[in-house]
C-alpha cells in the first residue's frame, strides 16, 4: 500500500474511533467501586453511530475473503452477525456452556473469581476457513483466548480478533498478540 493510501486508511480508522468513542457512556463505579464501565448501548441506540461502528469493521475487512465471523456470547453477536451479513460470510456463535443443542467442543478460562466455559458446535467450520473473531470488549482476554482456541481446534484460521473497545491496561490485547493473533479495536480506553 502506498503512503497516501496508508494515511487515508489511518485517518478513516481515527474518524470511526472518534465517532464511536464519543457515543459510549462511561458509568463510574459499576458493577463495583473503582470500575469505569464502558457502556456500548448508547452507541448502539444512536442509528448514525451504530452505522459508523459497523462501517469501521466493514472498512477494515471488505477487501478480504472471509468465510465466517465468530461472535462471542452475547454482545459479540450484535456486531458479528451484522458484519457476517455485510461480508457475505457465515455467522458462528460461540456460546456459554450448555447453550448449544448439538455436538460441541468447549474451552474453559479464568475469570476474576472462578472459571467459565465457552463452546462451539463441532461442525461450525470447514478446514482452513478464514475467520474474524468478534466481541464487544477486550479486557483481560480470557474469553477471546478461549474462543480462539476453539476455532483453531476445529481447523479454521483466525484472520483477526476484533472488538469495539480495547482496555489495554488490563493486558488482554497483549495476551492475544502474544498468542500470535492480530488484534483490532475501534477504540481504546487507558486507565483514567
TrEMBL record:
<dbReference type="InterPro" id="IPR000836">
    <property type="entry name" value="PRTase_dom"/>
</dbReference>
<dbReference type="InterPro" id="IPR005764">
    <property type="entry name" value="Ade_phspho_trans"/>
</dbReference>
<dbReference type="GO" id="GO:0005737">
    <property type="term" value="C:cytoplasm"/>
</dbReference>
<dbReference type="GO" id="GO:0003999">
    <property type="term" value="F:adenine phosphoribosyltransferase activity"/>
</dbReference>
<keyword id="KW-0328">Glycosyltransferase</keyword>
<feature type="domain" description="Phosphoribosyltransferase">
    <location>
        <begin position="58"/>
        <end position="168"/>
    </location>
</feature>
<keyword id="KW-0660">Purine salvage</keyword>
<comment type="pathway">
    <text>Purine metabolism; AMP biosynthesis via salvage pathway; AMP from adenine: step 1/1.</text>
</comment>
<dbReference type="GO" id="GO:0044209">
    <property type="term" value="P:AMP salvage"/>
</dbReference>
<comment type="similarity">
    <text>Belongs to the purine/pyrimidine phosphoribosyltransferase family.</text>
</comment>
<keyword id="KW-0808">Transferase</keyword>
<comment type="subunit">
    <text>Homodimer.</text>
</comment>
<comment type="function">
    <text>Catalyzes a salvage reaction resulting in the formation of AMP, that is energically less costly than de novo synthesis.</text>
</comment>
<protein>
    <recommendedName>
        <fullName>Adenine phosphoribosyltransferase</fullName>
        <ecNumber>2.4.2.7</ecNumber>
    </recommendedName>
</protein>
<dbReference type="GO" id="GO:0006166">
    <property type="term" value="P:purine ribonucleoside salvage"/>
</dbReference>
<dbReference type="InterPro" id="IPR029057">
    <property type="entry name" value="PRTase-like"/>
</dbReference>
<dbReference type="InterPro" id="IPR050120">
    <property type="entry name" value="Adenine_PRTase"/>
</dbReference>
<dbReference type="Pfam" id="PF00156">
    <property type="entry name" value="Pribosyltran"/>
</dbReference>
<dbReference type="GO" id="GO:0006168">
    <property type="term" value="P:adenine salvage"/>
</dbReference>
<keyword id="KW-0963">Cytoplasm</keyword>
Amino acid at each position: 500500500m502506498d503512503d497516501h493510501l496508508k494515511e487515508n486508511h489511518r485517518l478513516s480508522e481515527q474518524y470511526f474511533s472518534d465517532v464511536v468513542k464519543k457515543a459510549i457512556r462511561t458509568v463510574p463505579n459499576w458493577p463495583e467501586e473503582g470500575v469505569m464501565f464502558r457502556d456500548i448501548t448508547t452507541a448502539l441506540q444512536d442509528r448514525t453511530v451504530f452505522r459508523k461502528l459497523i462501517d469501521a469493521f466493514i472498512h477494515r475487512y471488505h477487501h478480504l475473503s472471509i468465510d465466517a465471523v465468530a461472535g462471542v456470547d452475547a454482545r459479540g453477536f450484535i456486531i458479528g452477525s451484522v458484519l457476517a451479513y455485510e461480508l457475505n460470510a457465515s455467522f458462528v456463535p460461540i456460546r456459554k456452556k450448555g447453550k448449544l443443542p448439538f455436538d460441541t467442543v468447549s474451552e474453559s478460562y479464568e475469570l476474576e473469581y472462578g472459571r467459565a466455559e465457552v463452546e462451539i458446535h463441532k461442525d461450525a467450520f470447514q478446514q482452513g476457513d478464514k475467520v474474524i473473531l468478534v466481541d464487544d470488549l477486550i479486557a483481560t482476554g480470557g474469553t477471546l483466548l478461549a474462543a480462539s482456541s476453539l476455532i483453531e481446534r476445529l481447523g479454521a484460521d483466525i484472520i483477526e480478533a476484533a472488538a469495539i473497545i480495547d482496555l489495554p491496561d488490563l493486558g488482554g490485547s497483549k495476551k492475544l498478540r502474544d498468542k500470535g493473533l492480530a488484534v483490532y479495536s475501534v477504540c481504546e480506553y487507558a486507565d483514567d
